[in-house]
Structure formats: C-alpha cells, structure tokens
Amino acid sequence: MPAPPGRIAVLGIGLIGGSIGLAAAQRVASADVFGYDPDPRAAARAKHLGAIDVAADSIAEACEGAEVIFCAAPVGALSELIEKALAAAGPETVVTDVGSTKRDLVARHGGDPRFIGGHPLTGAETAGVEGAREDLFVGARWYLTPTEISGGLLYDRLQRTIAAFGARPQAIDAEARDRLMATVSHLPHLLAFSMMNSVTGQEHGDDFLSLAGPGFRDFTRIAASDPKVWRDILLSNRDELLAQSKLFQQTLRTFAQAMQQGDAQALEDMVTLASETRAHWRMGAKRK
Amino acid sequence: MPAPPGRIAVLGIGLIGGSIGLAAAQRVASADVFGYDPDPRAAARAKHLGAIDVAADSIAEACEGAEVIFCAAPVGALSELIEKALAAAGPETVVTDVGSTKRDLVARHGGDPRFIGGHPLTGAETAGVEGAREDLFVGARWYLTPTEISGGLLYDRLQRTIAAFGARPQAIDAEARDRLMATVSHLPHLLAFSMMNSVTGQEHGDDFLSLAGPGFRDFTRIAASDPKVWRDILLSNRDELLAQSKLFQQTLRTFAQAMQQGDAQALEDMVTLASETRAHWRMGAKRK
Q1: Residue A165 falls inside a structural domain
Q2: What is the DSSP string of A208-261?
Q3: Which of A111, A137, A172 is at the close of a domain?
C-alpha cells in the first residue's frame, strides 16, 4: 500500500483550491501543502486561513518535490496551467485538475501518463478562498478520467488522497463525463441564463420579475452563477452542450405542437412523464 | 361599509376550495360556507375537516342565498362551472374563480357584471382537500380582474372577503395577467417539463439523472406538478405561452451563436446580465 502523499501542491487558490488545502491540512496528517496563485494576495490570504503551509513564489517552487499537484484555476486557464505543472513535476508526480469539462484537457495532456483529469461535484457557486471549507468534499462525488496509459501507482495515490478528503472518487470516460455534465448541469444553467435574459429583455420585464413567485425562484437560482466561470464552461463544453440544447428544443417543440393542435391527451401524457420522473427522482439515489 | 358576507359558496373542494372554506370559517366570523363538489366523497371529507358547513347536493343548492361564490374547479372545467354558478346566483351575488389563466374566462363571462375573475398566488402544487389550510392565503397576492361593467359594490365585497382570508387583493387587466403568468410561471414549468423529457428520452438518460446534483434538483422541482392541472394551463394560456416560448428560444439562440463563434466576451456579457439580475432579485421585493 503506497504511503500517503508527503507534499501536495495547489495551483490556483480560490474556493476549490483553498478547500483542497484545508482538507489536506486537516485530513491528511502527513501532508505539507505548497500553494501558488498568480495573485500573491490570494496566496497570502490562503496561508492566513491555514489553507496552505507555504505560499510559493512560482509554479516551479510549488511543484518541487510534490507527489500530487492539483490545478485549480478557472476552466479557461487550466490547459496552460496543466502544461506548466507537468513541466515542473517530477517523474513520479501525479498532476490533476478540477475543471468541469474534461474531454479537451484529456485530449491535450492525456499523452503524459502523469496527467489524470478530475472534477469534484461540490455544487458550490461562490468563488474566492474566503469561501473555502475543509469539509467541502465530504460525501461529494469526484470524477477522475484515467486513460489507458495512466500510471496505476499514480492513479492509486490520487484516489487515496481524494478519498482522504472525504470525497468519493469515481473513474469515468472523459467524453461520457462531458455529455453527463452538459445534460444535467450545463444545459440547466444555459436555460436559466436564457430565461432571465428573456424576461428582462422584454417590455414590462422588470415588472414581471417583481411579481414572480417561488417556482421562478428555484428554477432560476443557478442563473446567479459566476459569469467568468460559466463563460469558460459554455465554451469548453460547447459541442456536447449544443447537442443537448438541440435535443431539448426538439422536446420543447413537441409541447408547442400539442398546444397549437389543442391535443390535451398528448399534453397530459408528456406532463405526466415529466412529473412522474421528477417525483420519483432523488438526488444521488443510484450512487454506488 | 358593506357587511361581511353571510353566506359563501365554494364549488369544487380541492386544495384551494377547501382552503377558502377553512379561511372563511376561521377568519370571517359571519360566514356560513356551503360547498359543492361533483364527487360527494370530496364534499363529505371537506365537511369532516371543517372546510364547509353544509355539503350541498347541487350547484343550485350551494349557490342559493350566497353573497360570494368561489368557483374552484380545475382550469379546464371552470368555464362551464362559472356559467352554472351565474345561472344559480342571485342578482346581488358576486361570482369569482381561482383559475391561473384569465383572459378566456373574462372574454366569455365578463359580459355579466356579477362575474369578476380571480387567482390567488399560493405556489401550492399538491391537489386534494386533505392539503387545505386555513392560512394558505396569508400574505399571498390574489389577483382580481374587474371589467368596466363590474359592479362596484360586488367588487368591494369580493375584495374584503379575500382580504379577510389574509390575502392581498390586486386588480389587474386579464390580458396583462396572462402574459405575466406565461412569463414567470407557465414558461418555467414548460421548460422544466421539457428538460425532464429531454433527459429521459435519450440514451443513458436514466444514468445521467442518477448523477444529477443540487442545481438540477432546484431547476426541475416544478416539473413534478400535477399533469391535469398543467395540461389545462398549457392549453388555456397557450397564445401568451407560445409567444413567451418564442422569445425565450430567440435568447437561447443568441447564446448558441456566441458559443459557436467562440465569442467569449459576448458570453460573459450575457451571463453577467443574467447573473446580476438574478442575484439582485428578491421574491416579492417590489410588492406594494
């Protein structure tokens, strides 16, 4: 059984990076956490909060001697960061990331057996190390995308580290992962953004908003997500997301047609399908 | 000042009708509540629960001598029920309903000065008198759609009765009302229904569902609504709803175009608009 990691590097110390640092500090007794952030103030705050032991001045300094390197930048900056981390990492180091789309990253960096993509499902919407929590990952699924050439020892070490954070690591194919996220996360976000802008863009839209109720509140909650994070996600997973959006619009059209034709039975059948599926759905019910 | 109503009739005793009966019994000291339901068992249960004082055997019996008549059937059955209520009602009786779309009803029955459409915004999704609560309307907006010929005395009596239930009556034009509901309630429901069916209709859809998280949970909550209620709403408000659906799809297309063109700035701007609007929105913040 491999020893727990002695040194962990966190590159990019926002909510997720900071929570990784806190979890490592409090849940992996052997760990020293080296952190690097392009904004020195973020690194200093992280050190002050106990999220990292050492605020490194460069990526190379943070990565030196690290056994696990977490790249925790926004999606749009991840590829370059992973490249630099792999250049700085030793031959027995595993480099992972926490981005919510995986196919492009695995296509670009999967040729290096030290890179294994990852994504913790935290549901957290705020940004910044101030929101970091040592228990952010407890009970959360954490996807990993090992390829055929991923080193078994490195994968094992990564899995154990993540499990020590309280998360539930699960291997998944990068493409399946992106389709999954497009379907159950990215598309709902896109629809919620569009819903908000469709209301505010019309005459009396502000009045309508002021009169909206609890259904609207829950439906649009995810529209309040971080614009830069979601700009990057909409771009990085656009192929799967556009395909899902198309499927969705086909379904919407079947509703519209039934409405236009006054087909009450078809409408009742379609709403029944949606309603029963949703009524019987429980979050995480089928998780293994 | 007109006296509070002595007799109230409730036609159709489900969740809303039953709550009207309970609110009248407990909040309008002078009221006798006569109830009628096509299902005698529903009327018997309502009497047992204290929601009505008398279970009438017919619409005519329930309406005789009533000063306010509430028609609380599902949307699809409302028009016929209102017609029967108007036929049974005395010349000084106000007849109202609780349906969530108003334009068609006002167009059909607004020629009778005794009919004033209504709709309480309760956000309740379950059906059946067992879910009735005497405080269901406390603090809730209750729209009324008086027309130019609506009797002032009758409108005044209706308003006072509803206010006695704890609700906040507000007059609104029937057409504006339907557009409002299409925008902030009916369209979100339609999108949530379509989202569910779009997921379950595709390969691996059930697997995807089992892995969905809290964003999906809140976004689709309203998809679990009652199929018959929503079949009727989708049909009765279809003109406004189809217009809103079209507007929404135009907005969705602007997102898709920006994604296809890789226009990061446009995407960030659009998400920022949605995110800031939603972040600053508070339910009922602008209510007078």
Answers
A1: yes
A2: HHHT--HHHHHHHGGGGS-HHHHHHHHHHTHHHHHHHHHHHHHHHHHHHHHHHT
A3: A172
